[in-house]
User: Fold these one by one.
Assistant:
Number 1:
Amino acid sequence: MGRHDSDMTLSIVEKSPLFDLRGKISVNAVPDEVYAVVSDLTRSAEWSPECRGGEWISGAPATVGAIFRGENLRSEDVVGWAPLVRGVWYTEARITAAEPGRTFRWAMLTHARENQQSVWGFDLEPAAQGCLLTHHFRMDQPTEGIYKIVADLDEDERDRFIREWSEKLEQDIAHTLERIKVVIEAGK
């Protein structure tokens, strides 16, 4: 089998990046003010569709290397046909970038507390009316969780899952940005 032939047999979950999504919104606040809010992951319940907040369990909060344990909640109807974790579950993430007023990122951890190629973050840049806030998510390789979800799915179901999960993530990013804007601008 030639190289080209073998590439065609790759499962969709083996393609990289698996997810690479971003959204942007203007916020009427300076980048440092926005950063102070988005880097406080304990407040996530105020804007996230799934994360209900959590606690810092290692390191100084919101600094590179710190670990955050998030509490999450997913309803039954979210990509309802797929074998997803439902109800409450917990994740851990390590801060990988923390530059006040500029960028804040975290990598999801394995059960062994190793960084996965699943990184969420916020980037901020000054704008005429405050700042432009970008929320992004990139997963280069499947996480432990993705492998569990797709383990018993055939390739058509895997393709459907990746499509529908991408749509869900795009909606979540847009919702998160809209809520952060409201939280910050209402607090001024």
Number 2:
Amino acid sequence: MRRGALALLCTLLAARLPAQAGGDPGVVVVRRATQVYQAISSLQANFHQHFEDRLIPNEDSKGVLYQEGKNHFAMRFTDPAHDAIIADGRYLWVYTPSETPGQVMQYPLENHPTYGTNLLGTFLDDAVDRYRISYVKAETIDGHQTDAVLMEPLSNDIGFRKATIWFDRETSVPRRLEIEELRDHVRVLQLSEIRTNVSIPPSTFVCRPPMGTRIISQ
């Protein structure tokens, strides 16, 4: 199972907690991003993902990421070619022939082992109630001015310790996400050529592995 892709799909519903004070400038950045997110029907972007683990070799991967609505999501990889993580509205499919050829994992969306099928929603749904938010710095990424914000879960049932997100100052969409997970893994996802409210072919969210591929239901 490809760790770098699967990690970005997880979201567990966090308990609602009292809202934090809005004095930190990071809260303003996140609230603005939330307003933009609520108006977005779809998102498409190229991604480059870097995975760090002190116990195993680092991994890099790239491809195209798609999000439509709350529960249609896909990461279709160009490197490694043919790998895919797809949420079709009912199931999450994990197809990674680069690591486990001849099989595809199938998870019910309500019972999958990860932290969400809505990349933006993971961080922007009820963000002020669910995270301790603090401003980190301004930084230029690929020619775009961004504001980096640290988001630390206020509940223990979210599958990562903290995340730093660089929000584009003009569009308020993420350009980079750095996620520190519970086992000291760090994943850095960089997005480019971001497009919102675009028409995405329905086939994007359909998993069609080669004939003979074994489906392993969880």
Number 3:
Amino acid sequence: MNSQSSAEQSLEALQDIKRMMERSSRFISLSGLSGVSAGVCALIGAWVAHGWITEYYNRYLEVHGYVESERYGFKWKLIGLAVVVLVAALGSATLFTWRKARKSRLPILDHASKRLAINMMIPLAAGGFFVVGLLYNADWYYVAPACLVFYGLALVNASKYTLTDIRYLGLLEIALGCVSMYFPHEGLYFWTAGFGVLHIIYGLIMWWKYERT
């Protein structure tokens, strides 16, 4: 009886050590609801953008051609919408992650979170410069594929420093971005699927797996 109790205590001690090592090397406060909120923001943004695009093309049919000043302004209007969606998604994701960290009594800013941020920002920064280059050269068709691919690479690169499940989301984003390269006129739909639908599905799975109890 004593030997069994001792074995159980040793097992619990090993599990405690494992949890401590995981907390010190990985940022585990990432909330599944962060993914859901980011996905909802993306869906709302896509819905607004779809309405604007439909209105713009109806205007194009009315005047039998593009008005250059309207076209230039419309591009910046879409860029502004993308910035608003990004800020809203990051803000809501940060809020839910902060709430989870507070509930778990874990710091949101520690060595692991800094490594996570750095390794995620490298592909995102490269992707940002690449997308700006596309916009500068008026090559709008491949903006959505580039966003999906570089974002997926950022998730895969960051998965070493947080929940490994995020790696699968990254791989799906990369695959979706590669497929969308062959459907350049459907970029908004692929963008919606990647940043909206996949985020929501991933977030719900993570919440059910790690936070439901």
